[in-house]
Amino acid sequence: MNYAEPKTVLYFLWNYHDLLFDLFALQRDKGYISRELMQLTGKKHGHDILPQLLEYRVLRELNEDYEIHSVFYSLMEFLLNEFKPLLPETIQKYHYSISALFRKIRESQGQDEKAILQNRITDLSLQIKEFVELVEKNTIKLLSETRELKSNVAKIDYREKVHKASFWIEYYIVPLNQILNVNEYDSVANKLYEISEYVNQKRLLYTDDSIRGRFEKLYNQLVQVNDDLLKQSKILTNELLPLIERIKTESTILTGWIEFLKNPYKVDTPEILKAERGYPYSSNIYLNTQEFFEQYLNAAPVFVDEPQAPAEKWIFDRDKYKSKLQQELPVEDFFHWCADSLSSEYQLVETDKFFSLTGLLFEDDLHLDIESGAKPGKVSTTDFTLKVPKIKINTHGVSEIPYTDR
Amino acid sequence: MEYPKYHTQIVEALMGGKFILAGDKYFDELKANESFYASFFKVSFRYELKYSQEYAYLVSTDTTENLSRDISIFFAILCYELDRDGKNFMDELQYAEFEMDKIDEYFENSTYKELIKANNQLKDSESRRKLIRNGIIKRNIATKTGEERFVFTPASKVFINFALDLARQRSAETEAEGARS
Which of B69, B83, B85 sits opposite A158 (nearest CB)? Predict the structure, then answer.
């Protein structure tokens, strides 16, 4: 008997929820809380609340150890959404309780049995509710376990992964699916379907108003249950089974790759077509080119010593040509001026002389005006015909065109 | 005689060793004229047209194509390393985008280092890039999504199915041996 005020217990739970959730995790993993771990957990949170936990019947002693009372355990399971998957054999027990209650309801006849019939309908409703809740919890847990297996955060070995996947399929998913399969003769879903048909008739035909009302309520519940179970069954067949099957397939593929890598050159790999290469030139071009170049590879070097006629070296007299340029300012086309100057002096425009003369352009005190968009002119030297821009030199020192307009 | 639409492109692609993928206009045309193309390649070149709901390609039994082996080793090591990295390699091959640098990381830290070094198409980063670009992407086994990125196409299933068949074959052999002894 719990003598504490309900509010006090709730306040206590709220106040020490962290510690309680730790105790919940301990029990979930081991099935009980050892005395040492109880003390360590209290120390970790800096509270010694063991007396209250026992007084409020949150914990109960189990020889030397402790365990959380099932009511509080279920509450925390629900709050944390951390359910332990139940073996389908455990869920299957509802088949017997539901069947037994249904049989008794059908057998109930006459006014004398009215009171017990009401109770049986209520109990049947309760059993169905519990059954659906357990199925939901199991599906949630199986889904999270499977997803965890698939995401493989723990990086478990693939053999272990297959082992786990097979384990979930064999012991949980397939049997649970059988319980929910309405087409299986002895499944709970099939029994609920049978009850639903019976209740549907009774809610309309039963003579007693109050009982008819209860059948009506039960019928509505069964319609809802049918939807819920269908949803759970779909999760199992559409999501869980393919997910787990995929893990198994993936591991088979990996086995195949590991086998292949043991000796990849002794296994016939998939046939694919060897691509044919088409060249737009002769297939012998490489050899022909090679042959052509190879003829020069071993050629002996030949030296030709040609006597050169002594020539007078020309030295560019910068000052002379600069003063000539200054005297002849303004010059409309600088490059033509260079060519004309050389032509009048030496009768021909030699390339090296022409290039030397064009160096005057870099004199600091000459201001150049380059006409943008002007058509370039041509100057012929002894070796080339050069395309040259039109550069105007108006004055020496100050340009005619303001700098900003260039 | 009237040839199907895109006949030239279909023949060119398949003869170039490419996979034609579902969703491609050439694939639809090929699908509509599947028996014609099967007999066309058989009679003209003795090539077999392999066709599934997701891809089509040509095979020739009398050619020795080393590329297939290199690609198989590439997939084997990649799947193995992805799994070792805690990833679901089937999902990765189906949905993920791969970066060349990440591929390098997997291959450089692989436990199959000896095998990788001995294979000219996989031995170093440059060789692998060349294999991916000129072998895998060019044949539509993967699609380029960026300068250094790519995604695998359903054609990669040819290699995945190869591993699956090999595993089943080895498992059957082991079972048969067990039954004999």
Answer: B83
